[in-house]
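[Primary structure, fold]
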Amino acid sequence: MRNPTPKAIVLFLLSVTLSRAAELKPDTLRVWDDYIRIVNADVAERNGGSRSFLSVDESPETRRRLQNRELVITKHDPRRVHQALIHDWLGIMFVPNASLDQVVQVLSSYDRYSEIYKPLIRKTAVIEQAGNAVKLNVVAVQRAFSVTAAVETDEEIITAKLSPNRVCITANAVRLEEIANYGEPSEHAFPEARRPGYVWRALIVQRLEQRDGGVYVELETISLSRAIPVEVRWLIKPLTDDLPRKMLTDILNETRAEVLRSVAGQ
């Protein structure tokens, strides 16, 4: 019998660790709610004009990089709370020669998300829509090594046009289910007591501003997940950095590509 390779051992440890159920504790949820209140206060200040609307205006170096067509991805160190982590990531890009309406049109093309943002987004369906508010059902899937994390959410999306050149979009996951055996005949939602805890809560904030011959797009994602067990933190910690960074990079690149296709077609 052959000895297992180091890679096989790593994959086994990863899959076993992430397949264990993790319980969302009331104390953890209270810390999350407190953190989201801070985020919402920041959004209100930026929307109301008591702070710079875009974070890019607080960093000339970031603006220079964006004008050179770079994507800028930054993160706050994940906050450790009781048996959980809060992840807060910000991705920024500049879309040249585009209008605010063209970017908003792409971001509101919910029926095309599975095409624009594949393979991350697998399915979307508008549940209800009234004025600037939309309730959207979304199925998203990420894979890392031998682990597939599939999540179905109901997102409450609010699009606020603050001025002719500024828009703020918030998407709050008001219902979130993790899916077991995604894509297989036995696919089903994890029972609450047996959820793996890849993501327990999520909020997305997008700020858009048209100026300088194009549109600045800021995408902030905040999520709550299970903590990383100490014995495998050395293994899983890089994933908690690499996966969100790749997701933000892909979403921004795919949004920009779709907007530029729209611009070229007009």
